[in-house]
Design a protein that fits this description.
Two copies of one chain form a homodimer.
Chain A (H helix, E strand, L loop, with lengths): L4 E6 L6 H9 L4 E6 L4 H5 L9 E4 L2 E4 L1 H11 L7 H25 L4 H29 L11 H17 L8 H11 L2 H9 L6
Parallel strand pairs in A: 1-2
Antiparallel strand pairs in A: 1-3, 3-4
Helix pairs in contact in A: 1-3, 1-6, 1-8, 4-5, 4-6, 5-7, 6-7
Pfam family, one (chains A, B): GST_C_3
EC number (chains A, B): 2.5.1.18
Protein name (chains A, B): glutathione transferase
C-alpha cells in the first residue's frame, strides 16, 4: 500500500508550496491541512520543533521544508543522477534560501521607517547581485538551476516565487530573462499547471 | 589520482569549520586557505555568489556550506543508509541552521542597546525551546542527531559550536546533557582530535 501523506502548514503558499508542488508533480495524493492563526498556538507545541511545514508520512512527522523537498525530489525522480549532481542542486536551493532570508530581514519589520531603511540595501544591492548570478546560473544550465535538466531545485524556486514576490512587493524575475523563462517552464508542466489551477487562492 | 581539495574561507572557524571537520574525518588532504579581511573585497567578486566557504574540488568551485557538507558526508561514509535516513540527517542539520540564524539575528547588531533588546527573547525563549528539543532528539537517537548512529550531522553541529557559543557568549550545551555528550563523542574521534589540536587558534 502506498504511504499516506499529510501536509500541515498555514493557509498560505510560503514554505509549504514547494512541498505541494513536488507532491503534485509526483502525482502523490496528499491531505493539504491549512492551519489558521487561531488554531496555531495549540498546534505549535505538538510540532517536532514548533514549526511548520510538517509532512506526515504514514503518521511519522517530518519537518524542515528543504529536507522534506530533497526527500520528495528523490522519490519522484527529480534528484541528480549522482552525488556531484545532487551537490549542484543543493548549491542552487541553498542560494534560493539566501535570497529568501534577505527578504525576511526586512519584510516582518512592523515599523515602516525601520522597514524602509532595512529594505533599501537589500533591494538596491543584495537582490541585483544574487538575482543576476542566479539568472546566469540558469543560462549556463540551459534553462534550469542545475545539471542542464529539470530538478527539484527548479520546482522549489518557482513554488516559492509568489511568496518572495509578495514580501518584496514586485516580481523578482522581471529583469531576468532566464529566471522568467524558468518560471514559465515549471508552470507549464501539466501536473503543476493542474495544481496551480485548483489550489486555494492566497496572496502569499 | 585523488581529487585536489582547496577550502577558501575566512581566518575563523565559522561556517568553514564543518567542512574542515568532514575533510579531516575522511583523511582527505586539503589546502586550508584563510582569506583575511584586507584581501576579502578583491576575492569576493570571484566567488560564485560572493560568499565563502567555497570548496574547490579539482579546480571546480562549490559553494554553500550545507551543500558541501552533505556531499562530503556522502563521500566519507557519514550519510544515511537510504533516503529515509538522509531525511533524518537533513532535518537535524536544518534545525541547527535555525539555531544559527537565531544567533545571527542579534550578534551582528552594532548598537549595544538594540542588540540587548534583540538578544533577550532569543536567549530566554528561542534557545531553550530549540536546545531542549535538540537535546531530546539526541537522547532518542542514542547520543546522535539522527538514525542512532554517527553521521555528518553530528560533525556539522559540533564543528559549528565554538562559533555559535562565541556569538551567544556562553556554552550552548551547558544545561543539556545529551548535547554535551554528543560534543564529547565527536571531539574524541581520533581524526577530529588531531585536527582540533593542529588547527590555528581562533575565537570564533
Amino acid at each position: 500500500m502506498a504511504p499516506k501523506f499529510k501536509l500541515r502548514y498555514g493557509a498560505i503558499k510560503g514554505l509549504g508550496e514547494p512541498v505541494r508542488f513536488l507532491l503534485s508533480y509526483g502525482k502523490i495524493e496528499f491531505e493539504d491541512e491549512r492551519i489558521d492563526l487561531q488554531q496555531w498556538p495549540s498546534v505549535k507545541e505538538s510540532m517536532p520543533f514548533g514549526q511548520v511545514p510538517v509532512l506526515e508520512i504514514d503518521g511519522k512527522k517530518t519537518w524542515q521544508s528543504l529536507a522534506i523537498c530533497r526527500y520528495l525530489g528523490n522519490q519522484i525522480g527529480l534528484a541528480g543522477a549522482n552525488d556531484w549532481e545532487d551537490l549542484q542542486i543543493d548549491m542552487a536551493v541553498e542560494t534560493v534560501t539566501d535570497l529568501r532570508l534577505k527578504m525576511a530581514s526586512f519584510a516582518y519589520e512592523n515599523d515602516p521607517s525601520i522597514k524602509e531603511k532595512k529594505k533599501a540595501p537589500v533591494v538596491n544591492e543584495s537582490l541585483p547581485f544574487l538575482l543576476g548570478r542566479l539568472d546566469n546560473l540558469v543560462k549556463q544550465n540551459g534553462g534550469h538551476l542545475a545539471n542542464g535538466k529539470l530538478s527539484w531545485a527548479d520546482l522549489y524556486f518557482v513554488a516559492l516565487l509568489d511568496y518572495l514576490n509578495f514580501l518584496t512587493g514586485f516580481d523578482l524575475t522581471k529583469d531576468y530573462p532566464n529566471l522568467s523563462a524558468l518560471k514559465r517552464t515549471v508552470l507549464e508542466i501539466p501536473a503543476i499547471k493542474e495544481w496551480v489551477t485548483k489550489r486555494p487562492k492566497t496572496d502569499m
